[in-house]
Amino acid sequence: MSDASLPALIEALRRLPGVGVKSASRMAFHMLQHDREGALLLAQALQQAATRVRHCAQCNTFTEAEICPTCLDPHRDRTKLCVVETPADQAAVERTAAYRGLYFVLMGKLSPLDGIGPKDIGLARLFARAGDGVVQEAILATNFTAEGEATAHVIGEALKQRGLKVTRLARGVPAGSELEYVDLGTIAHALVERREK
Amino acid sequence: MSDASLPALIEALRRLPGVGVKSASRMAFHMLQHDREGALLLAQALQQAATRVRHCAQCNTFTEAEICPTCLDPHRDRTKLCVVETPADQAAVERTAAYRGLYFVLMGKLSPLDGIGPKDIGLARLFARAGDGVVQEAILATNFTAEGEATAHVIGEALKQRGLKVTRLARGVPAGSELEYVDLGTIAHALVERREK
């Protein structure tokens, strides 16, 4: 008799990002005590996703097909390519319903401090994709963090050299915010890029 | 073609306690992007634990056997029964190496506000276990929260009526703490229960 399943489960749960040994124990106890159905469902979902999900050959996002539904959509404007860091960022842009072009998902960002360079996030694939002769504008929508800005800069310079129009999401004061609570860098940017009404 | 695996995985991850839709997405992306091996390992661990782990017929803790290794251990003092809320609490007591008796794990606590009464945490099983004629002392080690205290009170009264010696973990100032930062209820208790040196 060995009681190995529970320690093995706690150890495996720790592979999830942001889950330490205390959370993992709590999760394991909860699932075993209150939600075994959920545990089996999660087991199956993990197994299916890990074996089925791959990267779209065109835009690099997660999909189960060779080409993802977005890239296949005939109603999309194929002259515009929005470059984002992750599928979650892509989903955020999609939710606005303000963009009908295509995407390229980097699945990461340049991060020299972590040793993540252009090769690690597959910039060569992006440049090949953007150079298909149809794409005219690359909209850089990487995050407005130091790493996201650096990534946008590197990609922007490279694509401009290849003759593409390169744009970046506008910086400024977020909708619904009170100036008192907006950081000064954002207000400074909003002042410099003020628009005539 | 349907891209159902990823949304299904995010939905399944939300069954874990403390995991909302943002964390679930982050977990799913991380596992698919950086740790598919971990995802498959977690799937297997969940499946095994959910199908194999059951409750010890004697102490009610999680085990894969009919009776857990602790209850079977011949070197344990069978006259002492320590009552805890969860296997995590049991593990905390075990780590002290200061206790060599047996356990009963409630797998919960009385919580009238949540509609959890004596039947829901199987107090009848505890009373049967404690009344085996061998157990002489019940050590109440439920948490020192309102619910844990209420649970200890109910169990204590019932076991005293059955002629058992009932004790509770000592209250007082935790080891290594500075009085300035200890709550006044704890200090008041420590004063009342002060010991001669």
Secondary structural class of chain A: alpha/beta
Question: The biggest beta sheet of chain A, please?
Answer: 4 strands, parallel
Total helix count of chain A? 8
In order across it, which strands form the biggest sheet of chain A? 4-3-5-6
Q: Which chains make the largest contact?
A: A-B, 54 and 54 residues
In terms of quaternary structure, the protein is homodimer
H/E element string of chain A? HHHEEHEHEHEHEH
Q: Indicate the low-confidence ranges of chain A by residue numbers.
A: none
For the record, give the distance between the C-alpha atoms at the N and C termini of chain A, rounded to a whole number. Answer: 77 Å
Strand content of chain A: 5-15%
Q: Specify the overall morphology of chain A.
A: globular
The level of helicity of chain A is 40-55%
Radius of gyration of chain A: 21 Å
Summed over residues and divided by their number, the pLDDT of chain A gives a mean of 92
Strand count of chain A: 6
Any overview of this molecule?
- Two copies of one chain form a homodimer.
- The first copy, chain A, is an alpha/beta fold.
- Chain A is 44% helix and 13% strand.
- Chain A has helices at residues 5-13, 21-34, 36-52, 69-72, 87-96, 123-130, 146-161, 184-192; strands at residues 54-55, 62-63, 77-84, 101-105, 137-140, 165-168.
- In chain A, the strands form two sheets. In chain A, strands 4-3-5-6 form a four-stranded parallel beta sheet. A two-stranded antiparallel sheet of chain A has the order 1-2.
- The longest helix of chain A has 17 residues, at 36-52.
- Chains A and B meet through helix 1, helix 2, helix 3 and strand 2 of A and helix 1, helix 2, helix 3 and strand 2 of B.
